[in-house]
Design brief:
13 helices, eight-stranded mixed sheet, globular, alpha/beta, FAD/NAD(P)-binding domain, 21 strands, binds flavin-adenine dinucleotide
């Protein structure tokens, strides 16, 4: 079976890229080892995060690093053994997190972030998925004066890049979210982001649109990718698929392809968990809430209230450690009346991260017809459609809507 392009990985990035290539007249086969949108793109907090104009840098203040070094903070946990293994990556991350490095990363990411809601809205309209979307933004709440100060400083920095927010005092916060229990002292309401009640269903909805328009989906293992003459071949349950072009969009598993081909991109994972809770009937959350001091998000979702944790630095396949979930849950229960746990065990996800805080989007330096789109870190759901459009424009020779240079693979 021959197509113009095969896309390896049917998460938010792969599915969006498939739709954009298809709309430019390419025949596309989307290949995954399972159904679309069932891995990282399923389990996230559902924020289409227009407000995250400044990427998540590594903290450089000694006081913050000391706090994390105790390994008790709810927002960042680590496995000491893994931290030692990650030393080189962390050093690069630390270097890129300097004031100048962060400014470079912010400017690099801005065109993708700025267009995230518009690009999603276009696909949401085409796929008729408006029922999944909440247009009330999200609220960052703080419980201490110190938290307020830090949250406002970071909000003011973000506002320089054209995002809008309202500062809420305790009364305004109560008025907006009357079901918060022990009311935090205030919050920052980000108005522009949209949020979804089921990110996995959103990606599946995009994938259905791709199929309705004649796109092909196949179950297969990307690791069987081989060169055959000037084409790429992958074995699937439908038989071998042959294409002149292949896109690697395997999120945190992209190294399964680029490593055997000789690339040494510094792709690491920041793990994160989620758990759903029953929502007591009388309780309504108007929009997702981020606990600034606790580093977790509570998002109203189809399955209940989804709590997503901050970062765990541990090996991708290392044993799960649910302490961070327990710790966040204890804090969350003081914030919102949560019912019983819904999931039999916490879900574990892996944010695919590069140390310069931007993804790789573009051609493989040493292999013709091979393309990369991975490393979207904390914002892969947000960036899927914009990132897919950019890669499709580059691949088809159209003028790209933004400068793709910062995302090139050969920067490493
Ligand atoms: C706790 C948590 C909260 C988050 N919250 C947000 C948020 O609110 N907003 C946001 O924008 N982002 C958020 N993120 C980040 C976001 O979820 C990711 O950046 C994004 O899902 C990555 O998408 P992807 O398509 O690159 O990867 P994935 O969604 O993981 O897709 C990769 C696909 O590759 C497939 N695959 C892997 N190996 C193979 C193989 N060998 N053969 C075939 N197929 C294979 C997988 O099955 C999968 O479908 C969060 C992440 C976590 C962990």
């Amino acid at each position: 079976m021959r197509y113009d392009v095969m896309i390896l990985g049917a998460g938010a990035i792969g599915v969006s890229t498939a739709l954009h290539l298809q709309s430019r007249g390419r025949s596309v086969c989307l290949i995954d080892r399972r159904a679309p949108g069932e891995e990282t793109s399923y389990g996230n907090a559902g924020l289409i995060e227009r407000a995250s104009v400044i990427p998540y840098a590594m903290p450089r203040r000694l006081s913050t690093l000391l706090r994390y070094s105790l390994n008790r903070a709810p927002d960042v946990r680590y496995s000491p053994l893994h931290l030692a293994k990650m030393g080189g990556w962390l050093f690069q991350y630390w270097r890129h997190s300097s004031r100048e490095g962060l400014l470079r990363a912010t400017k690099a990411m801005l065109p993708l972030i700025e267009s995230c809601v518009v690009e999603h809205d276009y696909l949401i309209g085409q796929a008729r998925l408006e029922h999944l979307v909440n247009r009330k933004g999200w609220i960052e709440v703080f419980r201490t004066e110190k938290g307020r100060e830090a949250a406002l400083i970071s909000a003011e920095s973000a506002a320089k890049y054209g995002v809008h927010y309202d500062v809420l005092d305790q009364t305004q916060l109560r008025a907006q979210e009357p079901h918060l229990l022990q009311a935090p002292i205030g919050g920052v309401h980000w108005r522009e982001p949209t949020t979804v009640s089921d990110p996995g269903a959103l990606v599946k909805g995009y994938a259905s649109l791709f199929e309705q328009r004649g796109g092909r989906m196949a179950i297969g293992d990307a690791r069987s990718l081989m060169r055959s003459g000037d084409a790429w071949v992958v074995r699937t349950s439908e038989g071998p698929i042959t294409c002149r072009q292949a896109v690697v969009a395997l999120g945190p598993w992209s190294d399964q392809i680029f490593r055997p081909l000789g690339y040494r991109f510094p792709l690491a994972v920041k793990r994160g968990y989620h758990m759903h809770y029953e929502k007591p009937e009388e309780v309504e959350l108007g929009c997702p809430i981020l606990d600034f001091e606790g580093g977790y998000v509570l998002a109203p979702m189809t399955r209940g209230i989804r709590l997503t944790t901050g970062v765990e630095l541990a090996g991708s396949d290392a044993k799960e450690n649910w302490r961070q979930v327990d710790q966040a849950e204890a804090l969350a229960r003081k914030l919102v009346p949560l019912g019983a746990r819904v999931d039999p065990k916490p879900w574990l996800g892996r944010r695919p991260c590069l140390p310069d805080m931007r993804p790789i989007i573009g051609s493989a330096p040493d292999h013709s017809g091979l393309w990369f789109s991975f490393g979207h870190a904390h914002h892969g759901l947000t960036l899927g459609p914009a990132s897919g459009r950019l890669l499709a424009e580059i691949m088809t020779g159209e003028a790209p809507f933004c400068d793709p240079t910062p995302y090139r693979a050969d920067r490493f």
